[in-house]
What we know:
By secondary structure, the protein is α+β, with helices and mostly antiparallel strands. It has two domains: 10-151, no CATH class; 168-225, no CATH class. It has nine helices and five strands. It has helices at 10-32, 37-41, 44-47, 114-121, 140-167, 172-184, 187-197, 202-208, 215-225, and strands spanning 52-58, 62-67, 79-85, 88-95, 128-132. A five-stranded mixed beta sheet has the order 3-4-1-2-5, with helices on both faces. The longest helix is centred in the middle third of the chain and has 28 residues, at 140-167. The radius of gyration is 21 Å and the shape is globular. Residues 227-250 are annotated as: Disordered.
Amino acid sequence: MPESPAPPGPERMREAVGVYVESLHRAYLAQADTFAPAARGAMPLISAPGTLHVAAVGVRHLHLLATRESLGPLRGQEVEIAGALPGLDWTLRFYDPVVIPGLGLIDESDGPRQGEVRTALGLQAVVYHVVAQPGSGLTPHHAGHVGSGLASSHSAAVRDFDTIRSRVRGRESLVDELVGAYTAGLPRAQALLARAISPHDAAVGALADTPAPDPEEVRKTLLDAVGGRRDFSPAGPTADGTGPVTGATP
């Protein structure tokens, strides 16, 4: 019976992850180039100046987390490589239970534990968090699909936030905070801000009371609460004649 091939060594694995991350970023930028300049400039991966930091974390699953937070200087057995494409510079740093012992306590036998991985790294905010599988799931082709999908999702979010902002007169600053929470990858903050923007909508309130709200669901539910993606005409003046009712539907 033939022996199973030996798993790739750490150098080959790091090279494969580096190619995957570059392919993801290349696809994201290519998709972003199809959008209008203002929409492109608001997309989280490219809207902030400076270097993006990507952490490749090996537990049972491979987690790729991009953040604008500093990962500090290299320590001990940490390894870092740099990457760049026109419009985006990044570093890629590798972590496993040898580098961060706390990762060894994460049980992923029932699936990825994104929150626990973020906690082990001490990250407060991420631009993206992708879970990849070595082998067929860690190819440039797969990365291209992930990058394009991520760019489309970010672009849709930009449009939705612009729509929401246009319909909540007097609460634009809360929408700006919501965008910041979305960009930083803070789902609980997004749900609480959505409730502040639309305090009387039951569906939005239910999400705000959820321990782990889904950011996409929060945004779409809030958008529905203020009229959805269809053409929208604000309601008439309020009882005191001061202007349209905030978040009212026609």
